[in-house]
Design a protein that fits this description.
The structure holds two protein chains of two kinds. Chain A is mainly alpha-helical. Chain A contains 24 helices and six strands. A four-stranded mixed sheet of chain A has the order 2-1-3-4. In chain A, helix 2 packs across helix 11, helix 9 runs parallel beside helix 12 and helix 17 packs across helix 20. The N terminus of chain A is likely disordered. The two termini of chain B are about 30 Å apart. Chain B has eleven helices and four strands; from the N terminus they run H-H-E-H-E-H-E-E-H-H-H-H-H-H-H. Chain B has a four-stranded mixed sheet, sandwiched between helices. Chain B is about 65% helix and about 10% strand. Classes of the chains: A mainly alpha, B alpha/beta. Chains A and B meet through helix 3, helix 5, helix 6, strand 5 and helix 8 of A and helix 2, helix 4, strand 4, helix 5 and helix 6 of B. Strand 5 of chain A pairs parallel with strand 4 of chain B, so a sheet runs across the interface. Chain B: It is a multi-pass membrane protein. Chain B: Its main location: membrane. Chain B: Keywords: Membrane, Transmembrane, Transmembrane helix. Chain B: It is found in: Membrane.
Chain lengths: ~625, ~350
């Protein structure tokens, strides 16, 4: 944060360029010194709270935990042990198979409380889901029992007569049947038009390509079989990886094939994000500790800017996070790209914890804020990354970059910026907001979180122009919220999601454009006149519009090629070079709706809420118009 | 004025209610739990190997005899269809053009073994769906081939019962999701106790006890009651939610007892840690490690809480799981009593 402050300060610097540079340099050095001093103090003070007894206690706990974990892995205690009961006679040929399975528990035939009965002649299954699951487990137990028996055989080629080599191949973008001459292994395909969303209906399209259809004269493919259209191929799937991560090419008997775990990103999310939770716990405590019993007051009256204090207090925790991330990345085989992708998530963790600790009234509240932060961020990073190989939407999560990095795929600069940019910007804006309330009247009072939030917004407003700046700064959050909405709604059919996404977009954008106006009015920052309201509304709309142009990087990854992406971002005038006139429309829209809410905010809470609903309505109608006209 | 313990518990709950962020946090937890179960059960059963809606086409090519056996095995599997191709090149072209989802090339190897090269698409969830089905088909082929060679085997493999439809994530729901939802509130309850006690120490409010007609152990009791009381209620609410979602939960009373016993153990841990190390950072870290220890330690036991919870919820638990619950409740009671003895000897003004 120190450089931000210094950049802001230098507008008042001396006149000649060289002395100006010199002055800037001294100031930067002074800031850095202050930051370093506070960081050192934070580290030594934290170390001071730990006495020998607690270190010993912690070490013992860690060692025992590690020992137990190792023991659990070694002895293979199964969480699904004895899940189903099987009634079986002890002289049945299947008894050993049941007995050796950890999931199944053999019971005598006389026991009525069983899910499955295996008698000499038949198998009877309870007609419940549990019964069917028990039967499935029984079947698997018999298969693996056979497998074990066969491994004991002398004649291995008769015991395992089939040898399979499994390979994973990437397929290029969907190309029309027949347009391809070589039979290579993908990747170099024509880039396609990308807009191939789920319109390849299965039933009706199945026998279309037979004669003259879109499938031209094929290159010797058995034409009677070539007809069947493949179902649902969404966009380009040139992203690689998940299969190579946990499955990998394998060779052996069919039983030894293990399908790749489809949720590789879940494992990654846990590996990277769980340690972060420990760090933000400590960080949040440290920040909140400053606010308890006015402890931070001495630091506040010292000749150091709040930015330096925050930077200094954050630095040790950030350093710890970077260290842990590097170690984990090295352990799972990720390179610099993985580290660079994960660190912005860490920054967002820290910044939102910082804001939470500035707002929270007690340790308990802080715990809940921390839980909320980590749950939200984990969802945000984990859910989209599931679709790594399915759709470009996955790129909103930096974990996708990690999955690709682990898979050995190159990550383009555009992809990287798209994935990491909003998160990094959001982290910076959050730090700015929190630093704004790092002052006496907010730190040592017990105000509710929403009030503190309004305070934080208000602290960034000094003149009407600030309204435009704040609107523009809200873009990363708007972007994150909208992308998350798309990612969450992605699984539903397109007919349902497009209107839902349009509404979600309107809600998010209108809130982002109006909350700071409301805060400014509530804090009596501006006169509550109609003229001022209209001015603030117009400025907010303008700032938002300019900030939104930032989203032009969306095009770099071709997100608009997704129908949903179009729904969310087309109304903002992105990617409409052909309709230049429409470029003015979003500006007018933003200014109008922001003015509507500003007029409402002028009067107070309830009229603000009412005006907000109205503005959202206008926005939704506008979005619908644009999407239907363009669609 | 009634029991001071109840008064303190009421005050704790009141402060929880006043800070409305807790409602938000609970709502978000609910969202995540609902969403993750939807994701796991819904999305994955979309690709359920036994669901007929998703058909996997397999291009088959290679030596004639092996191909015929392969086609029989593949067509016998529901949701799989074999398509013969004259050469590996044409099969690969069909794969690239997405007319087939996988390619299997067969040949005869040394010792008369069937050599197969299987090619699956590298695209996340779809890969899993294709490979799972292909594996089932190839295991059938292996069984058939093995039967032909039975003369060379000393023992004959047991006949495998026919396959039926069953959700592969049924077990997951009970062995992972149910224990997670049951034990998450327990963890949070202990964390609340740590927060509440360390905050009293940090703010120096415990000094007021010198003039107040309340003992330190009554304060601790009240805090344990407030935080610990919430956990079993939340756990039961989660189970009710699962019921609504169509996942049957059996033995709710026993699960309630189990969560209550475990909560007693964990809040005791939280209180002990905060009395030993009253700085919140250290206390929270030690507490997290301690909880990890409790859960990892118990998972080594044959009747671990997670396993017992799964079997109880599934309705397949015998007497042993119920005894485990009873044991857990006893351990919880003993630890609470032990804590009272310890707290009785602690001077609250020496803390911090």
């Amino acid at each position: 944060m120190s450089d931000h402050d210094s950049v802001r300060d230098d507008s008042t610097a001396a006149d000649s360029p060289s002395s100006r540079f010199e002055g800037l340099r001294t100031r930067v050095v002074a800031h850095l010194r202050a930051v370093a001093r506070i960081a050192r103090w934070e580290v030594s003070r934290s170390a001071g709270t730990v006495d020998r007894k607690t270190i010993a206690l912690g070490l013992v706990a860690a060692l025992v935990a590690a020992g137990i974990a190792a023991g659990a892995v070694g002895s293979g205690v199964a969480i699904d042990q004895n899940l189903y009961r099987v009634g079986i006679a002890s002289d049945s040929p299947y008894y050993d198979a049941v007995d050796q399975s950890s999931v199944l528990e053999p019971r005598p035939l006389s026991d009525p409380n069983v899910e499955l009965v295996v008698s000499e002649t038949h198998i009877s299954v309870a007609d419940t889901q549990t019964g069917r699951a028990a039967y499935q487990a029984y079947r698997e137990a018999v298969q693996s029992y056979n497998e074990r028996q066969m491994r004991l055989e002398a004649n291995q080629s008769a015991a395992f007569p089939v040898v399979v080599t499994l390979q994973y191949r990437e397929r290029g973008a969907l190309v029309p049947a027949g347009s391809r001459v070589d039979g290579g292994n993908g990747g170099s395909a024509v880039s396609g038009d990308g807009s191939g969303t789920a319109d390849g209906g299965d039933g009706s399209g199945a026998d279309a390509g037979d004669g003259t259809g879109s499938a031209g004269s094929g290159t010797g493919v058995d034409s009677s079989d070539a007809a069947a259209a493949d179902d649902t191929n969404i966009g380009a799937s040139s992203l690689g990886g998940a299969a190579g991560l946990f499955g990998g090419d394998a060779s052996g008997s069919p039983a030894s094939i293990s399908p790749p775990f489809p949720f590789a990103s879940l494992v990654l999310a846990f590996a990277f994000l769980v340690p972060m939770n420990f760090v933000i716990q400590a960080y949040g405590s440290s920040i909140l500790n400053e606010r308890v019993n006015r402890r931070g007051e001495l630091l506040l009256v010292a000749p150091i800017s709040p930015g330096d204090i925050v930077a200094g207090k954050t630095l040790p925790y950030l350093a710890g996070m970077v260290g842990i991330t590097v170690v984990i990345a090295a352990a799972i085989g990720g390179g610099p790209v993985s580290v660079a992708a994960v660190i912005p998530i860490g920054l967002l963790f820290l910044s939102s914890t910082f804001v939470g600790a500035m707002f929270a009234r007690s340790f308990k509240e802080l715990t809940f804020v921390t839980v909320t932060v980590s749950v939200f961020l984990t969802t945000y990073t984990f859910v989209p990354a599931i679709f790594t190989n399915v759709t470009p939407i996955a790129l909103i999560s930096p974990l996708t970059l990690v999955v690709r990095d682990l898979g050995g795929d190159a990550v383009s600069l555009g992809d990287f910026a798209f994935s990491v940019g909003p998160i990094l910007l959001a982290a910076i804006v959050l730090f700015l907001l929190g630093t704004g309330v790092y002052r006496e009247e907010d730190m040592f009072t017990q105000r509710s979180v929403p009030l503190k939030f309004l305070d934080a917004l208000d602290s960034r407003i000094s003149r009407p122009r600030s309204i435009a700046t704040l609107s523009a700064l809200s873009i990363p959050f708007v972007f994150i919220a909208e992308l998350l909405a798309i990612a969450v709604l992605f699984v539903l059919p397109v007919d349902v999601t497009v209107p839902l996404v349009l509404v979600a977009v309107a809600v998010v954008e209108e809130l982002a454009k109006s909350m700071h106006i409301y805060a400014a009015f509530e804090k009596a920052r501006f006169a509550r006149t109609i003229r001022v309201s209209l001015l603030l509304g117009a400025l907010s709309g303008l700032g938002f519009f300019l900030g939104e142009k930032f989203t032009a990087i969306v095009q770099l990854v071709g997100l608009p090629s997704l129908t949903l992406g179009q729904a969310a971002f087309a109304p903002s005038g992105i990617g409409l070079a052909t309709a230049a006139g429409l470029l003015v429309a979003p500006l007018v829209l933003h200014a109008v709706t922001a003015s509507v809410t500003a007029l409402g905010a002028r009067r107070g809470k309830s009229t603000y809420a009412l005006a907000l609903v109205g503005a959202i309505g206008i926005h939704v109608v506008y979005n619908m118009q644009v999407v239907t006209n363009l669609g | 004025m009634g029991n001071p313990r109840l008064a303190i518990a009421r005050r704790e709950l009141g402060s929880l209610r006043k800070e409305k962020t807790i409602v938000l946090a609970l709502a978000i937890q609910l969202f995540v739990a609902a969403f993750s179960s939807f994701l796991v059960v819904g999305l994955v059963s979309l690709y359920d190997p036994s669901a007929a809606s998703y058909q996997v086409d397999v291009a088959v090519t290679g030596g004639e005899e092996a191909v015929n056996d392969l086609i029989v095995a593949i067509d016998g599997e529901s949701g799989l269809a074999a398509r013969p191709y004259p050469s590996a090149d044409t099969a690969m072209t069909a794969f690239e053009e997405r007319q087939v989802d996988a390619v299997v090339e067969a040949s005869t190897g040394p010792n008369g073994r069937v050599q197969l090269v299987a090619i699956a698409p590298d695209s996340g969830v779809e890969t899993t769906a294709v490979v799972v089905r292909l594996r089932d088909a190839l295991r059938t082929l292996e069984r058939n081939e093995r039967a032909e060679r039975s003369a060379f085997l000393s023992t004959n493999p047991l006949p495998v019962p026919p396959a039926t439809e069953s959700s592969p994530y049924f077990g997951f729901t009970y062995t992972v999701l149910v224990p997670l939802l049951l034990f998450l509130p327990v963890f949070i309850a202990g964390s609340l106790v740590v927060d509440s006690l360390t905050e009293e120490v940090a703010r120096g409010t415990l000094e007021l006890l010198r003039v107040a007609p309340v003992s330190f152990s009554a304060v601790v009791d009240g805090k344990l009651l407030a935080a610990g009381g919430l956990a079993p209620i939340q756990a039961v609410a989660w189970m009710a939610l699962l019921q609504l979602n169509g996942t049957g939960i059996d033995n709710l009373t026993w699960l309630f007892g189990m969560v209550t016993g475990l909560t007693a153990v964990v809040v005791t841990l939280g209180a002990t840690v905060s009395i030993t190390a009253p700085d919140r950072r250290i206390a929270q870290l030690l507490y997290s490690l301690g909880v990890l220890l409790v859960f990892a330690g118990t998972s080594l036991l044959p009747l671990s809480p997670a396993n017992s919870a799964a079997r109880l919820a599934l309705g397949t638990a015998g007497l042993s799981a119920r005894l485990a619950v009873a044991g857990l409740v006893v351990v919880g009671l003993v630890s609470l009593v032990g804590l009272r003895v310890v707290v009785g000897r602690v001077d609250p003004n020496e803390l911090g």
